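Hi V.,

You were right to ask for the full record rather than a summary. Here it is.
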Amino acid sequence: MAKNGFSDLLNSYLDLRWHFDPVDASAAGLREHDERLGTFSTQEVSEYVAALRAIANALESLPLDTLDDEVDRTALLNEIRVTIHQFVTEQPHVKNPAFWLSHLLEGVYLLLVRPDRARDSRIAAVRRRLEAIPAFLETAKATLIRCPRVFAETAMDIANGGLVLLEQVPLQLRMDGDEEFDAARADALAALRSFSDHLSDNLLPAADGGFAVGEEAFNFRLHFQHALRNNASELWRYGATLAEEVSAQLEELARQLDGRAGWQDLVEQLREAHPDAEGLVSAYAEEMMRARRFVEERGLTAIPSGKLEVVEPPPFLEPLIPFAAYQTQTPAGSLQS
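Predicted structure:
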């Protein structure tokens, strides 16, 4: 009975999560949410937090029989606690315009690049998400206040990249004569330009410089999100000690390689030896395959099935990804031809 009770609560949590964040659901392979964007007004976030607290309370009072179940419950409770803390304390929906822009642009981008959806269903889903963008961004304007300057500036860059993404949508999905699709895209572009103007004319002039969450919130994340007992001060001391040890090792290695230069100089020399911009992605892909072969030939660890593709990030993600990022595949059980 306890096991069934936990499964029921887990399913309730997932249903709530996917309803609140349909883009996250699309990323997880759930197609039934592909045609929606989330809604993050103050009222709707408050209702979401209240529902999460109700699930957490039920989880905490549920009797469980095994250690495995207790581990699962702790993991789920920690995820719920971090989500509540995010929206109650950090409040990205109120303070960070990039939170809104990333949601809507990822919602479109995911459908453009996912091979596990039929073309017709992707066209319909993208059109519906494009249709939702004007109202979504009007809600964002009404909700966002007290934005730190760095968040507003980053959002400006994301918005500019987002305009490029929306302009490219017809090249990948539009069908000839689909006037509804064209109208939805035009309205979405106009809404995004209007939001960009709102950023520059209203949010950016009023932005302040404070963006840090503070030590207490940082420690909360360490404990509940990363399962670390150490606090910020302890990690700082450990990191400083580790940095000194690594620096000493690098100095010794530099002496062995070139007794006349410090390790920083050698690193700068290595940075100069790289492919040109046009060949960077292909060179990175070749090195990834070389690393894969190295692991396979030596049997170092099991390698998951599936294709690893190295691609350039879309323009709207460039302000958030200074080097590279990894996007997981859709779970195999959700793939359909």
